[in-house]
Amino acid sequence: DAMVIQNPRYQVTQFGKPVTLSCSQTLNHNVMYWYQQKSSQAPKLLFHYYDKDFNNEADTPDNFQSRRPNTSFCFLDIRSPGLGDAAMYLCATSRQGGDRGYTFGSGTRLTVV
Amino acid sequence: RKEVEQDPGPFNVPEGATVAFNCTYSNSASQSFFWYRQDCRKEPKLLMSVYSSGNEDGRFTAQLNRASQYISLLIRDSKLSDSATYLCVVGTSGTYKYIFGTGTRLKVLA
To answer: Would the pLDDT of B32 be above 70?
Structure first.
């Protein structure tokens, strides 16, 4: 089945130690997104790619970076995780035109110790 | 004012009840509307898109009121398994970003 896959499901990292989360998709969607969701809050958009064009949200900290080497893969790099970065990180895709909403991956729950 | 607003709830209803949620949006250029369901510690999953003429999927009915800028979700004959958070998501023509409401939490009680 076509889908969005995130690895790992659970990630524990040390305070200040760089960590990378990955997302892959078999839907051939041209738009990919990274969201951060903290407990009892709505998902917060960090950035998105339209094809190779990177779009950063104005309030996304510099600590968060992203790479999209090809259509299928997208990575979220957290350069120096702080305790406040502990959250669920959701990858999503959509098709150009976006009339069918998002397809989400199952998320990576990040713990910072 | 938030771009997309929802009553956070929780809505506690007995099994078999009918419950309705509203979601208001501020951007009149919004073109696409969705309801997502999110279970605790899981990813959001698309419940249904919302079309201008309104649409129904089994026990779920979604409606759009452009004049008053809100969408609604009606759940009939509530089941215990309907307990979840329901997220309203709004998209604007010409962008690829969707705005989330904070979600409405529903608890269906036995």
So the answer is: yes
